Sequence to fold (233 residues):
Amino acid sequence: MSDENFRRPAVVLLSGGLDSATVLAIAQERGYTINALSFRYGQRHEYELHCARRIASNAGVRQHSIVEIDLAQFGHSALTSDIAVPKHSLTEEVGADIPVTYVPARNTVFLSLALAYAETLDAFDIFIGVNALDYSGYPDCRPEYIEAFERLANLATKACTTGQGRMVIHTPLIQMTKAQIIQLGLKLGVDYAHTSSCYDPNESGLPCGACDACLLRNRGFEQLGLQDPAMFR
Fold:
């Protein structure tokens, strides 16, 4: 942990999923004071917010805010409207095309609000758990997208344009496989039983085991010779 980063405030986007829980642990390990930000955006699978609250509480973050927005009013996603979530029996069946679980401009909306929040905290560090390897093909998870948003952040904010600092969008998982992410998270003490990645969980939060997110997550645990603890809660 460097003296430069010690106790610096950071905003961590916390969905309640495996990736965001790992990113929160990484930010804490690097010495940042954590301000976690979650969204009730009209998603059908709100169990993830229950998980986000538990993760934030267990981690002892400085502040955890849940922001209310309504992307469901635009629809066009299986996560926010009455479109069926695709299910498969094998991970190899997950296609390369952008799936119907893509929520239009979701990460742009989330990062914009995180940017606004960061300015109010005099923070110049935002952490997000995007991944460009074991993921579902979303365009707003790619390195070039993050690089472009970081440039925008440094052009669009008072703090940056007046020379108070430089905004950095941290994506520590972006070039990691799901197995590598899990392995790192376990070393940092992440309890994955308290996370939810499923696009279509039942009322008690039990994952379906067949959507893209479940298949990719399960493969990560299997590659490590482990069972996903979320399947047995």
Observations:
- The longest helix spans residues 106-120.
- Residues 9-232 form a domain with the Rossmann fold fold (CATH 3.40.50.620).
